[in-house]
Task: structure prediction
Amino acid sequence: MDPHRLETFKSLPTISIEAFKTLLLLNGGAIVALLAYLGNARAPDLAARLFCPFVSFICGLVLAALAFAGSYRTQLVLYNDPQGTTHVLWLRVTFVIALLSLFAFAIGAFTALRALAVLPS
Result:
């Protein structure tokens, strides 16, 4: 294997971990921000309107954690069978789970924006 490909391959786990941390930070930070806003808001029905965004952000957190687990499984399969291609399935599944986590954040953000946009001044 040429040195460029080897160094690129070595950097991939680090990039993946940082992406998973970003997903955790986005979804977790959104939950904390909504909780802080909810604690200071004077709208009695706001908690009910923020139910869907909370569920979406929680799903995003769970999916990000599952992506971490999928990443571990991908590396474990690759370690046990370095010449095989079975790790590709785990890689693809993990990638889809990470995208779903990002999608959950987007859904939560847009539904929270919609819920907060109708608040009286």
Notes: The chain is about 85% helix and 0% strand. The CA atoms of residues 31 and 54 lie 6 Å apart. The radius of gyration is 19 Å.
